[in-house]
Predict the 3D structure of the following.
Amino acid sequence: MAQRTLTAQEVLAALREEGRRITLPKRAVVDVLVASDGHQTAEAITTAVQREWPDVSPSTVYRILEELEEYALVEHTHAGHSAAVYHLAGREHGHATCEHCHVTFEVPGELFDRFSRDLRVATGFTLDRHHVALSGLCEECAELVG
């Protein structure tokens, strides 16, 4: 069954239920994650937050991201040699990163489900598709480097 991405209200409500304070920087980080159309580095999230709240430090953003991840509201992925990228929890999916242009995109969960099953049967290895990204070339870069 396909899941949907969490809304800002759902993320903040979940934190309140856990007894966590909702600060302006925390709300700003959540708003940036909800407004993003993809996966964001902590640096990009910090830059976006600082447009509205210049006094919010990068370390504050990292602490907020760690807290959101602790409560399974945010997931991060290591995409090749690039910095980790963050996105709101929700739809089950995997990640693929282009080694040439470094774009990271979502891969439908059902493709990873099949691969994960085959990998477990063949090797006994259980894949954590949220934490790592498959690497290769996107369609556009594959045509360029031919």
